[in-house]
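User: Structure please.
Assistant: Input sequence and predicted structure:
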Amino acid sequence: MLIKIKTIFLVFVCIISGFATQSFAAEKKDINTDNLRYQKAFNYHFSQFQKNKKDGKAIYNLAVLSYKLKKYSQAKTYFLQLLPFQAYHLVAKYNLGLVANKSGDTNEALSWFRKINAHTHPLNESDKVSLNIKKLAKIQIQKLQAGKAGSLTTLTQATDIEGYVFAYYGNEDKYIDSAGAVTEGDDFLNLYGLLTFNLDEVIMPGVHWRLNYYAKDYQTRTEYDYHILGTDVGKSFKQGSWRHYIRLGFDKSTYGGENYQSISKLDMKFLYKLPHKQEVSTRLRFDEITSDNALYDAYEGQRQRIDLRYDWKFDQEKLRVDLGYDNSDLADSISTITSNVLHSYSPLRQKLQLSWFHKFNGNWKTRLRYEWRDSRYADYSTVDNIIRDETRVASSIRLKYHLKKSWWLVSEFKYTDNESNISRYRYSRNRIRIGVSGSF
């Protein structure tokens, strides 16, 4: 999830891990209108601050809005309150330098920028963001020493649109089941794009609209090509150590080049921050699935999912544990003569996923993952004379190399083994893919 806070010069780390920048001084056609909007936003965040005076985000927003309202003394007061917060420490110092410069105190501005330059503590939250702050502080020192106090600038103003993309080229090897059926491996192209439109100032804080597109296209087995075009609108909330959101969405998909499904979605997440960089969260998802092709009417119905997640962050590592429960009530394949279930497509699933993330340095990262999933289908199959039951295990390793800014070169290998009491559903598969991912 990308979450952008309106900032003097950037938005630092958030949960899912995204970063964006925003300047303080964008040119506006109607200053009075802007001031009214800033004041309204200030009043809102001040009410949040009154509920919890240790809420770093609320203090940060109050500082930013004070700066926009040109109340520099007030902005300084709030930024000073942010210094004890590790996640805001460097960005608060940087903005205190900007405030001092706006107030005409060049010596104080230089002092704040030099403190950043001399910062020797371990980089927190995001090495990339912290390093960017240090680089900018050096630039500001050079400008001030050159007597260009009036020319101090923040980063170019970011739009209210954020994006994330990945593009992979990969290969899946032979598919083998116990009956001896073999399908040769195939190359594929895997693409994903996400655009997030932040509507904080258009509707209310925390509201956003998203568009996403997913595609997996095989070189020869085009009957398995899968495309999804989706959209959702949602609102994020924050109070104290709680973070949560709610989204309503709609997906349209194709399979093998033919219309496949339309899915209406409700997605809710509740996250609580624990001491020592720990987080626990619960995610609830409800899908209403409609078939867009008579060939796939057996997959119509409803799907409900609940996921529990635990994250524990260390200096260079992160441990993640995911537990999931998935229940589907689909149409299944029904005999028109006997009304018996020919094939069941309504599984009750339980899953466990263990992930370990490690950061070698500023350029290299890795992720090791183990997945276990047990699926028991709801109905007795009259074709197979059994209730389908299967267990799938998978393990994977991913390596990421930092290219520039928010772009990464990514390679991944995954092995999957699916055991089933019905032979045609048994398989093992190797998949490898390499590509790039990035945010903007």
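The CA atoms of residues 32 and 402 lie 43 Å apart.
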